[in-house]
Amino acid sequence: MIRNSIFIILTMIVILAGCSNEPQKNTANTQNLSDLKQSNELAKDILNTQKPSESGQDNERAENISTIPDAPDSKQSKPLIVLTDEQILMKPPGRLTGTDYVEQNVQEALDKLPTDLTADQYMEELLLLLAEDYRPYVSTFINFESDITVNNQRPNAKITLPTSRKLHISILLDASGSMNAKINGKSKMDSAKEAIQSFGDKLPKNAEVSLRVYGHKGTGSNEDKPLSCSSTEEIFHGQGVQTDQLKNALEDVNPAGWTPIANALESVKQDIDPETTDSVVYVVSDGIETCGGDPVQVAKELHQSKVKTVVNIIGFDVDNEGQKMLRQVAASGGGEFASIDNGEALKKYLNKAYEKLRGEWTRWIEKGTGQANIQKEKKQGVLNKTRETMQRLSNQENSNLQVALKYLKTKKESDFPWSDIYKKIDERKSFAWSYADETGRRLYNEVSKNGKQVYDDIKDEGKKNSDDLTDKIKN
Fold it and tell me: Are 357 and 159 in contact (CB under 8 A)?
């Protein structure tokens, strides 16, 4: 009879559940779900009245009935919020931590806690009192930039000076009639053109370069002297990367008249950009000033101008008297005088001058790699300090929590969840300590990798470029 009753109740439950899902019966949709719960409870009550002697089959059926799920609560529960490691550690510190930590004050606060708290609740109360302030250090990790940035523009085929430097190189070529003279079967002019072209090919690609000729008009006659002495012309002005155009610019230059060195130097002033930071002049001449000018004074003015200019004089097959005068010009211009007796010597001198310019590049590489190392070590120092400080704080926090737990144990009843709280305190220390260690080391390794990459890039590019330039000088 009881079995039949149970079967009838089950049938009714199934029918009721099915009816509640009938889309065409709108009234069924408004049925209170509590009726279903009551039906379940009724079935369970009937089973509870069953005698122990009832068959095993009935017991099995009872187990099946007891597993019928209750209807879902009409109020949906809120989703569980999972905090990140950073969010946990960014919580405000306890009110009795750091410089505010006084053990007696902590004990007084602990005495006020309820006696029926769970281990989780005790842990929460302990952290409200004794959690250390990790926020500045977690913020350092979160906002940390592991990139190494050096303001270092890498070279291509030609040397590149630092972008903060703006170099102007002026080449002044004597085109007076005496440059027609030959040395070892080649005219001085042809040797000078070849040397200047070779020199131009090796100039810094972002340097500003100007080529000016003087004495290229008229003849060496007295009648043409005024014309020749006033003749100076800039035949090329561009960047070092464009110096392949020098050959075309030089092609139509032929030795002609007198030697107006002072006039040519005076004209250099208008060739130099006011924003130039470094200016170097190379005067190629086979003789002294013949137009009555004062090249010594003009060279001095250039050297003392706002854009400090160094004037170098290359005496191309100049006699002793001429060398004496040209040395004075170089000295007043803060430069040097070199006596060249043939075309090969002129090339070697210009290569030597170029070596000085390449020295700028070498020093730039050293500065760049040095900056990379300094930046890397500075960032690694910040990470080490942050990691170690966080770990020290986690040790201190753990010590304070352990002292508080020991005090609570002496005050609470025997059912006090001491071991569970102890475990949570230990987990808290491991969590904070490990976060600092793992995050600090990860960022440290990133900085090391990035710093090494920047350092190697600068060094490798510099070496490759230096080797290429060395080959050019040899050829």
Answer: yes
Distance CA 175, CA 253 (A): 7
Model pTM? 0.51
How would you classify the pairing of strands 334-340 and 232-239? unpaired
Q: How many CA atoms lie within 13 A of 364 on its CB side?
A: 25
Sheet holding 334-340, edge to edge: 232-239, 208-214, 167-174, 278-285, 309-316, 334-340
Residues 127 and 431: their CA atoms lie apart, in Å, by 14
CA distance 21 to 36: 13
pLDDT, tens digit, 9 for 90 and up, residues 46-96: 334 333 333 333 433 333 333 334 444 444 555 667 889 999 999 999 999
Superfamily (CATH) of domain 167-341? von Willebrand factor, type A domain (3.40.50.410)
SS3 123: helix
Q: Which helix (H) or strand (E) holds 18?
A: helix 2-20
Q: How far apart are CA 307 and CA 458, in angstroms?
A: 30
Domain coordinates in residue numbering, the chain: 2-66, 88-144+354-475, 167-341
